[in-house]
Design brief:
The structure holds 2 protein chains of 2 kinds.
Chain A lengths: L1 H9 L4 H42 L6 H36 L5 H31 L5 H15 L22 E4 L6 E4 L8 H12 L1 H8 L1 H18 L6 H43 L4 H19 L1
Antiparallel strand pairs in A: 1-2
Chain B lengths: L13 H12 L4 H8 L3 H17 L4 H11 L16 H12 L1 H16 L4 H9 L3 H20 L3 H25 L11
Classes of the chains: A mainly alpha, B mainly alpha.
InterPro entries (chain B): DUF6620
Chain lengths: ~300, ~190
């Protein structure tokens, strides 16, 4: 609000301090603007590069991608930190030094404007950070398909080390397993391929990927509930000066409707979680049935945790 | 052993599993470790998969907590303590210093974090520059974490903060070093 600063300055109160505050504010706003420009330039150049690296990195663990991602996030953090350091050194120090003088209003104004500008940069950093992290969302259908392809390629090729009879690999083994030859009863050691070893991890991630819509429905409830609460609250406030009985009745009806909708959603929320959890574990079990019994114990634990901590 | 989740799996105890994990993280081949322990790799692999599911099942975190403590105590495992990776003299000295000098431990923690932020593999960077493997580093980290937990429960927050500050200071120093190596940070030319 430049007018405020100008008016105060004309009044002649603490003119030196006012000048310093005004200059510092202007410089800080320009400084943050420059940091924002750098951030946008850097982010827009890095994100497509990261995506491309992820798509072309043949390493199973995508190490090059993860290193570059960490470096990009590190640079975003360095911009954020630079802003914080300058805010603390230039803005906070000045605000503390002048706040006890005769210009408190101006000091508050100065601090609020600078903080607001800083907050905008911080939000932009978070937005870029999120976009960088989103580049790492892998398609687990593709990873699972690789496991299936590898299994198809090897399932008919395993032979007994003693008699040479073919041994059918009838399921995807993800750990080294002993398989007895039906022809000569020799115990053979089957070592799974590199893709199959990832089965348990990929299966869980894929199960979560396939059922994420159900979890989203559950996770969306609190915001909807809050929104209905606010709607009801606003309607309640509007009753204060309302004299018209017809309008009053209509608004009260609307308030009841919002409250009722809110209650329905709150009751529905745990069921949505239970539906998601069951669907996710069913999917996980179907992808890696060998550990279905253990998955079920984990399921029970998550269910207990939810009832204990989230309700 | 009152908690059934802490019972051994196929003869592989939680201490075995944690010590094997620590030795593997030190770069020792899993087959060599299994041989020393007297189990076959197939048994270890299945036990390993099942220990993970035990941790998932355990809502009290007791299995995970115990695992962490055992991981940090891998050097005292009765059967695996003599199984040591090849470490340079400098690496041995640094590891010893890290175990006894908390400032040095915090410094390396900060350096590792800064390395990751500048696109290096932090664990590999520590290995290359200080000769300390990831497994050894994590083992020492577990010990210091226990010290910190004791300080926390004893209300000695000032001491904890003191070392956190030291780590952050060192992290900044290393970050500046890495930034200089890479020609600076993207916003270095933006001045107030």
């Amino acid at each position: 609000m430049p007018g405020f600063f100008e008016k105060t300055a004309k009044d002649g109160q603490n003119s030196e301090a006012i000048k310093e505050i005004q200059e510092t504010r202007d410089r800080f706003i320009v400084f943050i603007g420059k940091l924002e420009d750098k951030l946008k330039e850097f982010g827009e150049a890095s994100i497509p590069e990261l995506q491309s690296l992820l798509d072309t990195d043949t390493d199973e663990f995508k190490r090059s991608y993860h290193r570059m991602r960490a470096a990009v996030l590190g640079q975003i953090e360095s911009i954020r930190k630079k802003a914080v350091d300058v805010k603390e050194e230039k803005i906070d120090t000045l605000w503390y030094s002048y706040n006890d003088q005769k210009i408190p209003k101006m000091c508050y104004q100065f601090r609020d404007e600078c903080y607001e500008r800083h907050h905008q940069l911080d939000a932009l950093c978070s937005a870029y950070r999120e976009r960088v992290e989103d580049t790492g969302v892998e398609d687990f259908e593709v990873k699972y398909q690789r496991i299936l392809d590898e299994h198809d390629a090897i399932k008919g090729k395993f032979r007994c080390t003693q008699c040479g009879s073919p041994i059918t690999i009838d399921r995807i083994y993800f750990t080294t397993t002993y398989i007895t030859c039906v022809a000569c009863q020799t115990r053979n050691t089957f070592e799974p391929g590199s893709q199959a070893r990832l089965l348990e991890h990929v299966a869980r991630s894929l199960a979560e990927q396939r059922t994420k819509q159900l979890l989203k429905e559950h996770d969306a409830i609190p915001e909807k509930v809050h929104d209905l609460y606010l709607q009801a609250h606003r309607l309640e406030l509007s009753l204060i000066h309302e004299k018209d009985k017809g309008v009053l009745a209509q608004k009260r009806k609307q308030i009841d409707e919002r409250r009722s909708q809110k209650e329905v959603l709150e009751k529905k929320r745990p069921d949505l979680y239970y539906t998601y959890l069951r669907a996710m574990f069913d999917e996980w079990n179907s992808l890696n049935p060998a550990l279905a019994e253990e998955h079920e114990k984990f399921y029970t634990r998550l269910l207990t945790d939810y009832k204990q901590y989230k309700l | 052993m009152s908690n059934p989740l802490l019972e051994p799996i196929h003869g592989v105890s939680l201490y075995d599993y944690a010590a094997i994990s620590a030795k593997m993280a030190s770069g020792i081949d899993v087959k060599e470790i299994c041989k020393k322990l007297g189990i076959e790799p197939a048994v270890f692999e299945e036990a390993s998969a099942l220990w993970v599911t035990r941790m998932q099942e355990d809502g009290t975190w007791e299995v995970t907590t115990q695992f962490g403590q055992y991981f940090g105590d891998a050097e005292n495992h009765p059967k695996l303590k003599d199984l040591q990776p090849e470490v340079s003299d400098e690496g041995k000295d640094n590891l010893q210093k890290m175990t006894t000098d908390r400032y040095f431990y915090e410094e390396l923690n900060g350096a590792r974090q800064a390395a990751y932020e500048y696109g290096y593999d932090g664990a590999q960077w520590i290995q290359d520059n200080f000769g300390i493997s990831l497994g050894d580093f994590q083992g020492v980290a577990m010990k210091w974490m226990q010290v910190q937990n004791q300080e926390m429960s004893g209300g000695n927050y000032e001491n904890i903060q003191h070392y956190v500050d030291h780590q952050q200071k060192k992290q900044q120093e290393y970050a500046a070093k890495f930034a200089a190596e890479q020609g600076g940070n993207v916003a270095d030319d933006v001045e107030f």
